Amino acid sequence: MLEVLTSAQSESTQANVAGALHAQGLRAGDRLVLCVAGSVDYVSVVLGAARTGVVPVPLDPRLTDYERTKIIRDVGPALVIDEATTLASLLEGDPIDLDDWPRCRPMHFTSGTTGRPKGVWSGLLAPDHAEALVREERELWGFHPSDLHLVISPIYHSAPLRFAMGTLLSGGAIAVMSGFDPPAFVDEVARLRPTTMFCVPAHLQRLFGWLDEHGATLDAASFRLVAHAGAPCPEPIRRRAHQLFGTEVVWEFYGSTEGQLTACPADEWIAHPGTVGRARPGRLVTVDDDGQLWCVVPPWARFTYWGDPDKTRSAWTDTAHGPAFSVGDLGRVDGGLVYLDSRREDLIISGGVNVYPAEVEAALEGAERLVDVAVFGRVDSRWGQRVCAAYVGDITEDALRALATERLAPPKRPKSYERLDSLPRTATGKVRRTEL
Description:
With 436 residues, the chain is α/β, with parallel strands linked by helices. It has two domains: 281 residues, Rossmann fold, CATH 3.40.50.12780; 72 residues, ANL, C-terminal domain (GMP Synthetase, Chain A, domain 3), CATH 3.30.300.30. The protein is built from 13 helices and 25 strands. The protein has a ten-stranded mixed sheet. The chain has a four-stranded antiparallel sheet with strand order 14-15-18-17. A three-stranded parallel sheet has the order 3-2-4. The longest helix is centred in the first third of the chain and has 17 residues.
């Protein structure tokens, strides 16, 4: 049975966490790496840090030493929490006063076409901007003290953590699943009667598959909000979600770790199939001559890439409406409605997790007897896409799998390998991934 954490309980714990971090010498602007499994305490630690200006850096606990070492070296944390017992010790600190609002966004790391994960850094926020950041989420999603938010996605991802934080900051309660399991989910919904949930399409696919296989049902009447994002949602899955939860309940949004661009209630999608909705309040989505989507955001939603001014400059442009960012996605805007034509170049979305081929290739390159390698995505009925690799050389598939296991977290490891005489390339040497 899942533990339910109320806002009042979390508020007390947050003050303890803030005191424990202060006693260890952490101050505003210092980074706190969290590389442990998700829990309700995890959310309290993030809030306790952020409400004193200590910057939480959530990492996937499944990262290999090879992956994690590079990130930690890059971010220069004042403290790394990689054991559940160490996380628990923060809950016992002597309480200190908290700011009314988190003074920063957690620094989530996102991969890129260079193969080097980079932190999305908001900087420390002025008090009015910190308040505005919380209030705009509250106004968009209607977070309320009566809410019980059920977390079913890994808490170290930006959207699950943002929804959990927003619920607690609005006076509501949360419960956190350690991993998504359809029968356990059905049982907890019946027991807890949650009001809100964020999911990715793969969760819905697994849920509906299990319900059909076992002739089971889900009593979804308690939900007032089910938000999905992270990957394109197949139309049959989307329409079944509308039927099960209600069109007044289901929302989609489009965005990235860097920021959220749109929100789309089910009724709007039904009226305009294919849209990902309209720009969120306070934002403006435009498209340039190359079909690339750009989003003007308020000051509290701006960011840089930690330690990478060149990558930051390439992500931003000045417009007549203010600074706008892009992650390279292509689309169009029609009557205020945004349509997404293709995700950023080469991106593989597997179960809602973004995987960039360049990062996987960088982990495999240099292996003895490997001449060439290219990573690409293929359609997968369960996960949306699966990661695949084609390679040239006398190295064995087993050797490549072992190297991937050593250096890459599970979602990034290729599920299949194909040996080729050569990789298909353009005249300029770029791999033709669509041919693979």
